[in-house]
Amino acid sequence: MTFAKLSFVGDRIELDGNEYRACTFKDCVLEYRGGKVEFAFCTTENTTLECSPAAAQTLESLGLQ
Asked: Which of 40, 44, 60, 63 is the most buried (most CB within 10 A)?
């Protein structure tokens, strides 16, 4: 699903399989399980990324975490 020019505040958002364009995230938790996700021109404020164990291991292997 594509999300464009939306503001998310205080939400828990599943990233996998989605596309975010020019969105803002404030006080959110972004959940990533290792699937495809696209971000373009988005901003975050006080937002954290929560990865599944498999996704975290992949990011660590790539030196990104």
From this structure: 44
